[in-house]
Amino acid sequence: MRDIVKRFNEDTPAEITILHGCDVDIEEGEFVSVIGASGSGKSTLMNIIGLLDRPSSGTYHLDGIDVLSVPDDELARLRSRKIGFVFQNFNLIGRIDALRNVEMPMMYAGVPPRERAQRARELLELVGMGERVSHLPNELSGGQKQRVAIARSLANSPDLLLADEPTGALDSATGRLVMDLFHELHRDHGMTILLITHNPELAEETGRIITMKDGLIA
């Protein structure tokens, strides 16, 4: 990413600039954290990296693709193939079990039912949830929900895993288990991971720390 600027309410009296020209490089196979105070621009940057929003100006190449020149419908397909998301509050669908939650991204990607069910089972086994495939989210603990969410984020074999405060809703012991799982994915499976966190201790565990302050890379 080069010179990424993000403004909201452009060309109105309420215009505000959140990102003031950020340069970011993340290499394949890195485990990188982004830290900064509330309001520093971390979430805005993550939304742009995750193709959930477009910058006001700047350039962004993801795996060699100039994503800012891609139409919105193709951008959604690119996001589905290239990026996995893990959120603080899990974002699981409450009325379906763990297996079907993990299947959902593959269903939207057009993966046949038998294939996606098999892969969902394999991913739940990978994150230690193989015995909970038929459980609804309200039958799972916070840590178990986050493990299902991590399995779901891996469904379409993304190139980049974006984790936005993934331990924020968990107690310290459960958060430790989730961080250990990220380390395992990075170490044993070569995942490229970008961790957004307020916690400097968690950031210290990653290979590189990007610090944001007032919409800039500090």
UniProtKB/TrEMBL annotation:
<keyword id="KW-0547">Nucleotide-binding</keyword>
<keyword id="KW-0067">ATP-binding</keyword>
<feature type="domain" description="ABC transporter">
    <location>
        <begin position="1"/>
        <end position="218"/>
    </location>
</feature>
<dbReference type="Pfam" id="PF00005">
    <property type="entry name" value="ABC_tran"/>
</dbReference>
<keyword id="KW-0813">Transport</keyword>
<dbReference type="InterPro" id="IPR015854">
    <property type="entry name" value="ABC_transpr_LolD-like"/>
</dbReference>
<dbReference type="InterPro" id="IPR003439">
    <property type="entry name" value="ABC_transporter-like_ATP-bd"/>
</dbReference>
<dbReference type="GO" id="GO:0005524">
    <property type="term" value="F:ATP binding"/>
</dbReference>
<dbReference type="InterPro" id="IPR027417">
    <property type="entry name" value="P-loop_NTPase"/>
</dbReference>
<protein>
    <submittedName>
        <fullName>ABC transporter ATP-binding protein</fullName>
    </submittedName>
</protein>
<dbReference type="InterPro" id="IPR017911">
    <property type="entry name" value="MacB-like_ATP-bd"/>
</dbReference>
<dbReference type="InterPro" id="IPR017871">
    <property type="entry name" value="ABC_transporter-like_CS"/>
</dbReference>
<dbReference type="InterPro" id="IPR003593">
    <property type="entry name" value="AAA+_ATPase"/>
</dbReference>
